[in-house]
Design goal:
This protein has one helix and nine strands, in the order αβββββββββ. With about 120 residues, it is mainly beta. The protein has one domain: Sandwich (Jelly Rolls), CATH 2.60.120. The strands form two sheets. It has a five-stranded antiparallel beta sheet with strand order 1-2-9-4-7, with no helix packed on it. It has a four-stranded antiparallel beta sheet with strand order 3-8-5-6, with no helix packed on it. The protein is globular and about 40 Å long. The relative contact order is 0.29.
Length: about 120
């Protein structure tokens, strides 16, 4: 089954929305003790400027993500994953229609959207 129309109700109904204050980006948060897993959906092109944080692992399920990590740029497509080491400067260009699963190894990186 493809997820072109987004993640299934099983995900959306059981995990809270992430509070991302940017248009065209949504996600559902699974909170761990020391990390966060987010089912991400990009309904618009997204460009993240260079930034740093704790380690981050992501896998593209559909669409395309161009990541520049520590000065090296690579394009990731369905089934491919990337690793951003802790404190590595990185940026991203993510195409509209991309769906991914991302884990931030920081228990407080994302917040739940207000009701």
């Amino acid at each position: 089954m493809k997820i072109t129309k987004g993640f299934p109700g099983l995900i959306k109904d059981n995990f809270p929305d992430v509070g991302i204050p940017l248009p065209g980006i949504s996600g559902n948060l699974l909170q761990g003790e020391n990390c966060q897993l987010v089912f991400m959906e990009f309904d618009e092109d997204f460009n993240a400027p260079p930034h740093r944080h704790k380690a981050h692992w992501g896998m593209v399920l559909e669409g395309e993500a161009e990541m520049t990590i520590s000065g090296e740029t690579q394009v990731y497509g369905p089934g491919e994953f990337y690793i951003v080491p802790e404190d590595a400067e990185h940026s991203a260009r993510i195409k509209k229609g991309t769906r991914s699963i991302d884990i931030w190894f920081d228990k407080d990186y994302m917040t739940v959207a207000p009701d």
